[in-house]
Amino acid sequence: MKYDRALAIEKATQLFWKLGFQATKMRDLQEELDMRPGSIYAAFGNKEALFKICLLNYAEQSRLALDKYAGLNSNPIKAIYDFIKNMAVKAEEGKINNCFLVKSISELDGNNAHLRQYAQDGLKDVESGFEALFLEAQEKGLIKQESNPARLAKWMQIQVMGLRSYGNSQDNASDVVIMLDEIFNSLKQAH
Fold it and tell me: Quick one: which of 159, 100, 150, 110 has its CA closest to 130?
């Protein structure tokens, strides 16, 4: 049976995201991917190797999405806003709201430090995208010259993590968008 690699990675990501790395069994992956164990091993390696692929793919897709919004907006602050809002809209459509990378970092212990590092690197990559956009905003006079783009990127990453966790506990996605607006209002006032 021929399989769609991208679809299989997406399905595995959703399963790992829902259950976590530790709780996901090969049997779960077999059922979700509709693949026999030998086919999974041949295509991806073991569970750990597949999880790594899922982390790297998710991180890459996140950065590509941020870059897409940067390309669509001449205002870099609006690009960040639209990127984050898109995650809230996905949550409204019933997708899992907590960030897969953050959830993985929280779950993985010292025995899986190498996997945890992939998730941390993915977050750092998005943070560096935020930093580049804040630097551009500074150059365009959209934020104060004395603002520190690297610090703002870290602050925004923390806001996103909190917003996504908050969104996971809410039934109404419009509350998440209201809080997103509050984050960006405070950004305008302070920086």
Answer: 150
* Cα distance between residue 45 and residue 134, in whole Å: 39
Integer angstrom CA distances of residue 7 from 11, 54, 103: 6, 11, 21
The model's pTM is 0.90
Any idea which fold 52-190 has?
Answer: Tetracycline Repressor; domain 2 (1.10.357)
DSSP 17: H
Distances (CA, A) of 173 to 95, 142, 177: 11, 28, 7
How far is the C-alpha of 20 from the C-alpha of 14, rounded, in Å? 10
The pLDDT tens digits of the residues spanning 80-128 come to: 999 999 876 565 555 556 789 999 999 998 889 999 999 999 999 999 9
Instruction: Name the residue among 105, 127, 9 with its Cα closest to residue 57.
Output: 9
Q: Give the domain ranges of the chain.
A: 52-190
For residue 182, give the nearest of 163, 158, 164, 155 by alpha carbon. 163
